[in-house]
Amino acid sequence: MYVRYSLFLDWKHYREVVDVAAARFPGWEDREPPEYAAELRCLRFLSRLMPEPFVYAHWNAHLRNLRHLEEALGAMTEHVVDETISRVRALNMTPRLTGLFRDAVFGLKNQLLVPEWMRTPSLRMKFSKFVFSDAEASPMVTWNGALRALRRNSLRKLVDRGFETFWHGPALGFDPWLNKDEGYLAVPPAAVKRIFTERAFSVHHLPRIGLDLARAVVGHFLQMAFHLKRK
Q1: How many CB atoms lie within 10 A of CB 183?
Q2: Is the pLDDT of residue 150 over 70?
Q3: E strands within 94-213?
């Protein structure tokens, strides 16, 4: 029920539910009251399979209206990507490899703080309806049922481009990642400290998020170079 309807809850009236989505500390299940431990453990287990609703709940409650933060993060991401491409070009690799890498990186979509499609109400409704269609006959959604729904929805994505990217990386963690198969570069909400603004934002985040983004992009380049060499 939480995963299905969390995309539409008014977080101001369901703050405890949002806090569940934002709990990211080791041993969290041991510090909760016994009457909530089993429920929270179930939610955290499910979050590893389907992190999108949990990420959205956190973004909707804490980050949605911080446009200056998203703009600063977007500018920093573009700067890191451009700088990494320049550094790779300076290595004087083969023109073919450099061109392939440039095209691949420019083709990546930046998914900052939340999957981009989750900002659209109609797509969130589709996600809720399709992924949890098994719940129409019963209020209980079993673990196997959630797995079947996820696989079914992944296949549907091949013909319905409404859901362009799913976050299969560490969405509830602190580190950015690059998914070359889905074609996106992601920064999860936990990676950003919202207390920093303007110049302080770059001073704090560039040595952290910036370095992780550069590492992900360079890792993609090394994989491309390895596969091209094998050919």
Answers
A1: 13
A2: no
A3: 109-112, 177-179, 184-187
pTM of the model: 0.72
Confidence of residue 45 (pLDDT cuts 50, 70, 90): low
Per-residue pLDDT tens over the stretch 89-117: 777 777 888 888 888 888 888 888 888 88
- The CA distances from residue 165 to 52, 110, 133, in Å, are 10, 11, 20
Q: How far is the C-alpha of 221 from the C-alpha of 212, rounded, in Å?
A: 14
Which residue, among 187, 185, 188, 205, has the nearest Cα to 196 in the 3D structure? 205
CA distance 169 to 222: 20
Contact 118/56 with Cβ under 8 angstroms?
A: yes
Please choose, from the candidates 170, 220, 196, 205, the residue with its C-alpha nearest in 3D space to the C-alpha of residue 77.
205
CA distance 43 to 63: 22
